[in-house]
Amino acid sequence: MADEQKPAGSPSPAPPGAGGANPKAGAAAGASKPAPPKPAAAAAPPKPPATMAAIPWDSDLVRDLRDRFGEQIGETSSYLGQDFLVAKPDAVTPVLEYLKLEGDFDYLVDITAVDWPKKPERFELVYILYSFSHNRRVRVKTSIADGYRPASAVSVHRTANWLEREVYDMFGIEFAGHPDLRRILLPEDWQGFPLRKEYSILQQDERWVQENLGIESGQ
């Protein structure tokens, strides 16, 4: 019956919208929200590169070189097991010949250079030698001013022909006595030397690019 009364003690019906309510959820909703995360600390500036920690290189070969060339041999050091010596520019070719004939360093692996524009002796030349019989490498370094023409090593190592041409092509260093000193990587009429520090990495020979490729930029 519609007007039938419920027996005493019966639970009252839940109010609308309260069905299935979780009392714990309500308590959680009233709890304070967690604090927002703190912003990350600024990254520390990068550390400067470590200075090359070379150690003195002393051996029978070093002593023989010093006896033979005296003050023309400067520093003799080793870095991570790689031996190198620093020689005066005029002594480089005789030192290379001595190392070839007396030290069995009979393979000229490479010749490269480093440009230090702020130094009076702007360019550092590096000759990398290898001995097949001893399975060892040694580097001969020398520093020269811009415009200085070091003696060619072609008379000692024929491979110096192409290696010196590459150094000339990239740095503009001319080797006195070279039999055929001309560019080896870039066209003969290219202007500038790409591995000099004043030559921007984005720079191209705009005239050559326009005339030969028909575009405004090589980039």
Per-chain topology:
Elements: H1 23-30, E1 55-56, H2 60-69, E2 73-79, E3 82-87, H3 92-102, E4 107-115, E5 123-131, E6 136-144, H4 160-171, H5 206-213
Parallel strand pairs: 3-6
Antiparallel strand pairs: 1-2, 2-3, 4-5, 5-6
Describe the structure.
The chain has helices at residues 23-30, 60-69, 92-102, 160-171, 206-213; strands spanning 55-56, 73-79, 82-87, 107-115, 123-131, 136-144. It is 22% helix and 19% strand. It has a 6-stranded mixed sheet. A hairpin with a 7-residue loop joins strand 4 and strand 5 (123-131). With 219 residues, the protein is an alpha+beta fold. It folds into 2 domains: 55-184, 2-Layer Sandwich (Beta Polymerase, domain 2), CATH 3.30.460; 186-219, no CATH class. The radius of gyration is 37 Å and the shape is flat. The protein contains 5 helices and 6 strands, in the order H-E-H-E-E-H-E-E-E-H-H.
List keywords for this structure.
219 residues; Beta Polymerase, domain 2; 2 domains; six-stranded mixed sheet; flat
Gist of the model:
22% of the residues lie in helices and 19% in strands. By secondary structure, it is an alpha+beta fold.
Structural class: alpha+beta
Query: What is the beta-strand fraction?
Result: 15-25%
End-to-end Cα distance, whole Å, is 93 Å
Give the count of structural domains: 2
Low-confidence stretches: none
SS summary, helix count: 5
CATH topology of the largest domain: Beta Polymerase, domain 2
What's the SSE pattern? HEHEEHEEEHH
Tell me roughly what share of residues is in helical segments: 10-25%
Strand neighbour order, sheet with most strands: 1-2-3-6-5-4
Count every beta strand, where a strand is a DSSP E run of 2 or more residues: 6
From the 3D coordinates, which CATH architecture of the largest domain would you assign?
Answer: 2-Layer Sandwich
Radius of gyration: 37 Å
Mean pLDDT across the residues is 85
